[in-house]
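ok trying this again, last paste got cut off
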Amino acid sequence: MFIINTSFLKGKIQAEIINQSIGNDIEYYQYAFYLYKNGSREKVEWYSNKNIIQFDISGNKEDYYVTGFIRSSLKDSPIIISSYTSNSKKTNYDIYRWNKPIYKISKLSLNSDLTFEDGIYQYSSGNVKIDLLFSGMSSFKAHKGILVCFSGAVTKREKKSAPFFSGLNISEKLDVPIISISDPSLELSNELNLAWYTGNSNIKNLPIVIAEILDKVSNILNTRLIIFGGSGGGYATLAVISQMENEVFGAVWNSQTSISKYNQHAVINYIKESFPEHDIRSDDLYSTLEEIGIMHDLTPLYEKNKKNNYKILFLQNTGDKFHLENHTKPFMKSIGFTENNEKVYTSKNEKICFWINYWGDGHITPGMDKIFKTLNSAIEEKSPLEIALAL
């Protein structure tokens, strides 16, 4: 199976044909490329052994696509594949900029016969499409588990194209594979930089669907998952974990726990871009989100959650007073907690541990050293309380 990936460089368009199947020693291939500009063939690169090519382009308003031809030594007719139509300006969505193999999966194909390699797995079901980037699978060891990362707000979103994958450098540092998940709602508009993985008009139960996917991946690979994220990515982590059935460890920092209690402008923007058919009651965002029917408040989920499959470490910066007062403290109060010391608190069911400390003014991460230490300890199967007491 062949795919063709295209990406825009400065003044150029690059096309690469990737062979996703295991090669045959007898068979060899040659490649040719056509560049199309606004529907007309503009340039030609004739057959050679090169599977990657760059064409010079001009202007940023023209639509370009590349058609590739694969000639086999064992077949008479060439294989023909085309990239999608786009232009050199930033678009809402451009999966090809990642230059990764793309694999299509569905609910039916997620079974024990599936193998996972490095690349982007596109999960599709009806109008729903979710991009999951698998990276570092060559170093997979079942006893160490797999990391899963959810992204927070995307900076300078108007200049960037979805999908967005985070946490890859952490995976490399810890030498553990990662599944980085892009929020499909961010594909809807380049004006939207945060959607909490809670869904849009096409899918209102997104955390449930993601949880089902991750449970199946965990079953197929016979391993446990360590899920993490900060801020809005922390919210997604907590939301998805609440819906999972398999054993899972979660690590979050400065996480939102109720979307309506976050920045009003960001919440209104999310509703406007993701649910344009709904009226927005700016004076009562909680009721608006409730009427839409998405998972917008984690408090009742964890108040009622009787599962024993999860362990969570919640890191909170006392210098981030907004999140401490509006999200962390109300969440802690709702589920009940006991104090271990002035920095460490444990939920009454002992499944969630809170490490509350100062690491700077504002909404900032606890530092990569603390994140690495937390995740590495989780890989070593230490409990949230053990990790918190050692931070």
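PB: full thing came through this time. The chain has a mean pLDDT of 91.
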